[in-house]
Amino acid sequence: MGLLNEGINEIIATTHQNAAPMGIIKRNGKIRMVLYHGSHTAERVVSGGWVVANFIFDPVLYVTTAFDDLPAEVFIDEKAGEFTVERLSSCEAWAAYKAKVERSTRQSLLISLLPVREEIGNLALHPVNRGFNSIIDATVHGTRYKVTRDKGLLDLIEYHAGIIKKCGGPRESEALALLFDYIDYP
Ligand SMILES: Cc1cc2nc3c(=O)[nH]c(=O)nc-3n(C[C@H](O)[C@H](O)[C@H](O)COP(=O)(O)O)c2cc1C
């Protein structure tokens, strides 16, 4: 099983009836996540003991799942070892992991992941697009900006907005407009 690349994989993580963009870190044969306390994902990984990495390339879905909930019908049940897990209906591929808390600090949980099942569905080609990549970056900054209102983060979001406008397609433009809405862009 090996859908993940070495480094940090920015996937959309599903837990029970929840989806959010998260980084899965693969280094030196180990697979881990760092989950900040307070997210639904952190709470549900601990209570359910599993997480699914959804491989998806829709910029709108990254923004939506970072700030909002998805309707129940987009979650599809799958068997993965001892678990019934949930993946997103529109993913191109998915990987289910057994999840265990390795360490807990005041700020975050270090979660170790054990691959249980991987499936590849309808793969498409995704030519590298700086606009898409900048949606990912701007959304990371946006989730922090929404909490901190830090002007430095706003500058970074504006920098990425420039790249999205120059290099993105209509779906990236739609995602950027949505991001601006969610963060109440001044
Ligand atoms: C690309 C991307 C990667 C992210 N990676 C993480 C991560 O590794 N750990 C984390 O705690 N939050 C991460 N976040 C922030 C969460 O997605 C965000 O806090 C979200 O609101 C959590 O949603 P939830 O409450 O439904 O779990 C990331 C956000 C983005 C856009």
Describe this structure in words.
The chain is of the alpha+beta class. The protein has two domains: 7-120, Pnp Oxidase, Chain A (Roll), CATH 2.30.110; 130-182, Methane Monooxygenase Hydroxylase, Chain G, domain 1 (Up-down Bundle). Helix content is 36%, strand content 37%. It has five helices and eight strands; from the N terminus they run E-E-E-H-E-H-E-E-E-E-H-H-H. The protein has helices at 40-48, 59-67, 130-148, 151-167, 170-182; strands at residues 7-15, 18-27, 30-36, 50-55, 75-80, 83-88, 93-104, 108-120. The strands form two sheets. It has a six-stranded antiparallel β-barrel. Strands 5-6 form a two-stranded antiparallel sheet. A hairpin with a 2-residue loop joins strand 1 (7-15) and strand 2. The mean pLDDT is 97. The structure holds flavin mononucleotide. Residues 10, 18, 20-23, 33-36, 39-41, 62, 66, 136, 139-140, 143 line the site of flavin mononucleotide.
Which key phrases capture this entry?
186 residues; Pnp Oxidase, Chain A; Methane Monooxygenase Hydroxylase, Chain G, domain 1; six-stranded antiparallel barrel; two-stranded antiparallel ribbon; 5 helices; 36% helix; 37% strand; binds flavin mononucleotide
Provide a brief overview of the structure.
By secondary structure, this protein is α+β, with helices and mostly antiparallel strands. It contains 5 helices and 8 strands, in the order βββαβαββββααα.
